[in-house]
């Protein structure tokens, strides 16, 4: 049992680095994340944003991607690229958002898969 005057020190070997201008805590080199943390928050956020944009365009709020880009304050090219995420296969979206599978492609590469068949999309993203 500890006394009220005792001090307990806990040392956790973490490194803080800046990534995209924000501080990011890096775990030790031998750390292996659990399967529960396989989802990439950047991909989840981009998919959510793309679906929001798609709904707004389908509702007639914006007639063109250029109008949408101006409204959200982003470059037209960026909006155009990320809007493609809303047109990925339903199975792929389910595996990316609800499943615990890690994608083997980057967010940038994922944006260009919408033009492929649904079977090819899953094969490229998860190497199934």
Automatic annotation (TrEMBL):
Superkingdom as given in the UniProt entry: Bacteria
Protein name per UniProt: Bacteriophage-related protein
Species lineage: Bacteria, Pseudomonadati, Pseudomonadota, Alphaproteobacteria, Rhodobacterales
């Amino acid at each position: 049992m500890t006394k009220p005057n005792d001090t307990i020190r806990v040392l956790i070997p973490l490194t803080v680095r800046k990534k995209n201008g924000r501080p990011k805590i890096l775990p030790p080199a031998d750390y292996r994340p659990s399967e529960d943390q396989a989802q990439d928050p950047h991909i989840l956020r981009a998919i959510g944003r793309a679906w929001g944009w798609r709904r707004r365009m389908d509702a007639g709020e914006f007639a063109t991607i250029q109008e949408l880009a101006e409204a959200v304050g982003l470059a037209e090219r960026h909006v155009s690229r990320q809007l493609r995420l809303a047109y990925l296969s339903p199975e792929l979206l389910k595996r990316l958002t609800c499943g615990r599978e890690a994608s083997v492609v980057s967010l940038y590469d994922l944006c260009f898969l919408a033009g492929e068949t649904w079977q090819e999309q899953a094969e490229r993203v998860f190497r199934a």
